[in-house]
Specification:
The chain has about 950 residues and is an alpha/beta fold. The protein has 5 domains: about 240 residues, 2-Layer Sandwich (Uridine Diphospho-n-acetylenolpyruvylglucosamine Reductase, domain 3), CATH 3.30.465.10; about 210 residues, 3-Layer(aba) Sandwich (Vanillyl-alcohol Oxidase, Chain A, domain 3), CATH 3.40.462.10; about 90 residues, no CATH class; about 190 residues, Rossmann fold; about 110 residues, 3-Layer(aba) Sandwich (Rossmann fold), CATH 3.40.50. Helices cover about 45% and strands about 10% of the residues. It contains 41 helices and 25 strands. The strands form 6 sheets. The protein has a 6-stranded antiparallel beta sheet with strand order 12-14-13-16-17-15, sandwiched between helices. Strand 24, helix 40 and strand 25 form a beta-alpha-beta unit. The longest helix is centred in the last third of the chain and has 38 residues. It is globular. The termini are far apart.
């Protein structure tokens, strides 16, 4: 099934992936299609892409470009060569004081906006996936979004681009000689584009139709408006590539015009008796200046009515109700005052179910948008096992929206999609609908085929609407492009494809596809693997958060591969199964940080770390589980043994150096065949002593983490106080009495066992620790504070692993992260001086799970004149001991954050977790410490 595929010599073999595990990892994008590539290649230069074009022509092998792989319609998969741009091509440069931004394909959309923040500018496209999708996909699909509309999409904000055509020609369209170069090197392209333009204008009805259709959102087929909007071939070419889904050439770089950001917002959720009443309000709200208008039918509202923070009115709505999420946005307060008055005046004349209330509170606004954005994942979370989620987007004239929604609802009923919901960007006439579909049986495929046939007829014949508004044509709508556009327009599209890609090897079958049933081929079935991840829809939103994404696999890929392993078990493919399982050990299990950050970006809140922990547990021999239980029973001895080991390590470091210890470790690894911890210069010193503290009149129980009890002394200073000493010092200065129980040794949050799959030892340790906390806290009367964020988070999320009795105790114990404790309790009571320091922070994964990064920043800003969180903040990948066992994980995970920090001038480096501080020290070569050391310095008496 997987031929031995040799790729072009100029590309480093390390960036040519041909193992089954690599091919299958890239076989899926966010769509419901699946194709296994023959090879995945990661070029890092235009010259290498040119070589790939040449190889493709010589071997007649298709090429497909892929950036984030969040495409919803199968544009970024292939059974040929998949060109993965996500690992390189990340350049971004601001030009003309923020009026322009130059971007390469793998820049995440949100990161482009972060880069523009100092200039109060942003890019125009605002897709809902902007935190995950990349510029390559935004351009290739002409993506838009909530507020972008037509005027601010990539097509209309494009300044210039660097293009690589299949014939090998590279053109920077902004260069003075660009037109001349194109004419000299590709006269056939120039002539062909001009001929097509003349043909369009020779048919006035066609030219008018093109102009009319692009006044609304439309991404069906090629951007024919390039032929009517521009007269110069170089401009026609560059705008044809926008929305071409990688079928015409490669956009190596694009320069976009930027737009002002909107500081002021005025937001409300309006409820109506019917969709018709909601739709009739749209023109009035648009005329009043509303920038965002999101319509939601009753089924969509029902899907989120039980969400935390959902407005109580939603559950009480009648069955035919609908809603509009309305937002006015402005750059100045005067402009907002004008919008505010217009909004209130307009809404006073609307027939809403409940009185209209607007908010300018960012928290309330974020909650309203969270509800709107939660509709798609809500359906994904509740779908039946084995089904996938399909989201499509169609567009109509605004006057047709109410009738179109009614017709879509009738189609759902006719074809049995009772779960279907409808929402969308009302001011653009753009509706999204979401259904769940199984492709595991032929009868289900036939049901989907019937539904699609009726949908296409309804959109194109009844309403003359657009089958695709902003997601790109893709495989699902490619067979119906001619049905929407008509024979002549479709023929022009075919000629555009033939003109620029005469061999038809760039993303074949996407946009231009003569097969009327192409949308029913290469469908993705989703075998069940485990309840913790079966809800995954393979959207790829998680990937941007994953520490191992540049080294081995992402969360999506781990799930994709486990599903493939399940498929191979069903067909008894032992050879491929063995290959996948063997390679998955390192790529899928060993190098997963199980930090859970993937869940923070996942639409259905999947923590792939849970899957990895389960898989680790399944492969642990019973004897090893018993060893873990032995360590649990003798944990105090284990702590002492580790202290001695640290002392010996530091002694050896003095005698033979860090490199010498590493060499010994590597030799031991070869002999034992096992991965062993690697010594490094950032390893902290041992904590030999925990000072006694008074129990009487204590305000808080201080539970020092086991890592602080064992290795709590910073590596960069022999005489530095331990973390425990520092914690006690700042508490005492604040007049807050904390008590460390005498029998605290031997207790732990359980994470060292749980993260590795030692479930019995983890549960036993949790029982011991919760029982201890219950006793020490005087049955929950005293709050418990820890000195490490990861330990606090682990305890606060351990409920599922507890017995009923322990769970009852756990619910009644208040467990505080050190950041919370300092910010909420100590800081108001301390005299803090502003140190003449510039500091940089690393809010670790656990503190981000607890949403404490702003509190950490506030603490640092009280202590130093400048405090910064890097734009490229990432997980350090140290993950307890992963960074010691697999230092390449930390190096890869922290690559961009470390690079950003290296360009800054900082006097201090701080986090809230000892192992993360070790990881960041290794990555940056800068001495990271707990933020408690910064607080201690800032509260010393002058």
């Amino acid at each position: 099934m997987f031929p031995n595929f040799e790729i072009v010599p100029p590309i480093d073999s390390k960036r040519v992936l041909t193992r089954p595990i690599d091919r299958i990892a890239y076989a899926s994008d966010a769509s419901f299609y699946r194709l296994i590539p023959q090879a995945v290649v990661q070029p890092n230069s235009i010259a290498e892409v040119q070589a790939l074009f040449q190889f493709s022509h010589e071997q007649s092998v298709p090429l497909v470009f892929r950036a984030a792989g969040t495409s919803l319609s199968g544009q970024s998969i292939t059974d040929g060569i998949l060109i993965d741009l996500s690992k390189h091509w990340g350049g971004r440069w601001v030009e003309k004081d923020g009026e322009l931004i130059r971007l390469q394909p793998s820049v995440i959309g949100a990161h482009a906006n972060v880069t523009l923040q100092p200039y109060s500018r942003r890019i125009g496209p605002d897709p809902a996936s902007i935190d995950s999708c990349m510029i390559g996909g935004i351009l290739a699909n002409n993506a838009s979004g909530m507020c972008c509309g037509v005027a601010e999409n990539a097509y209309h904000t494009l300044h210039s681009m660097t293009i690589l055509l299949p014939n090998g020609l590279v053109v920077d369209t902004d260069a003075k000689d660009a037109a001349e170069k194109l004419m000299h090197s590709s006269p056939d392209v120039v002539k062909g584009l001009l001929d097509l333009r003349r043909r369009v204008f020779s048919n006035r009805s066609l030219a008018d139709r093109i102009t009319q259709r692009y006044q609304r959102k439309n991404t069906t087929g090629y951007s024919l408006n390039a032929l009517t909007d521009f007269s110069e071939p170089i401009d026609i070419l560059s705008h044809l590539l926008i929305g071409s889904e990688g079928t015409l050439g490669f956009i190596a770089e694009a320069v976009l015009h930027t737009l002002p950001t909107y500081r002021f917002k005025f937001t409300s959720l309006l409820f109506f008796d019917t969709v018709q009443q909601a739709a009739s309000s749209i023109p009035l709200l648009v005329a009043s200046g509303a920038r965002a208008l999101e319509i939601m039918d009753r089924a969509a509202l029902r899907s989120i009515q039980n969400f935390p923070g959902a407005l109580g009115e939603i559950a009480q709505l009648p069955n035919q109700a609908a809603a509009l999420l309305v937002e006015y946005q402005a750059s100045t307060s005067d402009e907002m005052n004008s919008f505010r008055n217009a909004a209130l005046l307009t809404c006073a004349h609307l027939k809403t179910l409940v009185p209209t209330t607007f908010t300018e509170d960012p928290i309330q606004q974020a909650n309203l948008w969270k509800l709107r954005k939660g509709m798609f994942p809500a359906i994904g979370a509740t779908r039946q096992p084995g089904t996938t989620v399909i989201i499509e987007d169609v567009a109509f004239a605004i006057s047709q929206i109410a009738d179109a929604i009614t017709d879509l609802q009738n189609l759902f009923e006719t074809h049995g999609y009772t779960e279907g919901i409808i929402f969308g960007h009302a001011k653009d006439g753009n509706l999204h609908f979401v259904i769940t579909q199984s492709f595991n049986e032929e009868s289900e495929i036939q049901r989907y085929e019937r539904f699609m046939a009726e949908l296409v007829r309804m959109v194109t014949e009844k309403y003359d609407g657009a089958l695709k508004a902003e997601h790109g044509t893709g495989r699902n709508m490619a067979p119906f492009v001619e049905q929407e556009w008509g024979e002549e327009a479709y023929q022009i599209m075919q000629e555009i494809k033939s003109l620029l890609d005469p061999s038809g090897l760039l993303n074949p079958g996407v946009i231009i596809n003569p097969d009327s049933r192409a949308h029913l081929q290469n469908l993705k079935n989703l075998p069940e693997i485990t309840s913790s991840v079966d809800r995954c829809i393979e959207c790829g939103f998680c990937e941007v958060k994953c520490p191992s994404r540049r080294l081995t696999l992402t969360p999506r890929q781990r799930i994709v591969l486990q599903r493939e392993i399940a498929r191979r078990k069903q067909v008894s493919d032992s050879h491929l199964l063995e290959s996948l399982q063997n390679d998955f050990q390192y790529s899928g299990l060993d190098t997963c940080a199980v930090d859970g950050l993937c869940a923070t970006a996942c639409p259905v809140l999947i923590n792939t770390g849970t899957l990895v922990k389960d898989l680790r547990r399944q492969q642990i021999p019973e004897g090893n589980q018993q060893i873990a239980l032995y360590i649990f029973r003798h944990f105090k001895l284990a702590e002492q043994t580790l202290r001695v080991g640290l002392a010996v390590g530091h002694l050896l470091d003095k005698l033979i150096g860090t490199d010498g210890i590493v060499a010994l470790t590597q030799a031991a690894e070869k002999i034992s065949g096992k991965h062993l911890p690697k010594w490094n210069e950032a390893v902290p010193g041992p904590t030999w002593h925990i000072p006694p503290t008074p129990h009487d009149h204590a305000d808080y129980v201080y539970f020092p983490s086991c890592i602080a009890r064992v290795m709590g002394r910073p590596a960069d200073g022999k005489n530095s106080p331990s973390l425990t000493d520092t914690f006690l010092t700042v508490s005492q200065r604040a007049g807050v009495s904390v008590w460390i129980p005498d029998d605290v040794e031997g207790h732990c949050c359980g994470m060292p066992f749980g993260s590795k799959g030692y479930k019995p030892a983890n549960q036993a340790m949790l029982h011991r620790t919760i029982s201890g906390l219950w006793k020490w806290s005087e049955r929950g009367r005293l709050p418990v504070v820890l000195d490490a964020s990861s330990c606090a988070y682990s305890l606060r999320t351990s409920g599922a692993e507890l017995s009923p009795q322990d769970h009852d105790y756990w619910q009644r114990i208040t467990i505080l992260d050190p950041i919370e404790f300092v910010h909420d309790i100590l800081l108001p009571r301390l005299k803090v001086q502003h140190l003449p320091m510039s500091v940089v922070l690393h809010p670790n994964c656990s503190s981000r799970h607890l949403n404490l990064q702003e509190k950490l920043l506030a603490i640092a800003r009280c202590c130093a004149i400048s405090a910064t969180i890097p734009n490229n903040l990432d997980c350090c990948g140290f993950a307890g001991d992963r960074g010691l066992l697999f230092p390449e994980l930390t190096a890869s995970a922290s690559l961009f954050e470390a690079s950003e920090i290296s360009t800054g001038q900082y006097d201090g480096y701080y986090s809230s977790n000892p192992t993360c501080e070790m990881g960041m020290t290794i990555a940056t070569k800068k001495p990271y410490r707990s933020f408690l050391y910064l607080l201690e310095m800032a509260t010393r008496e002058m």
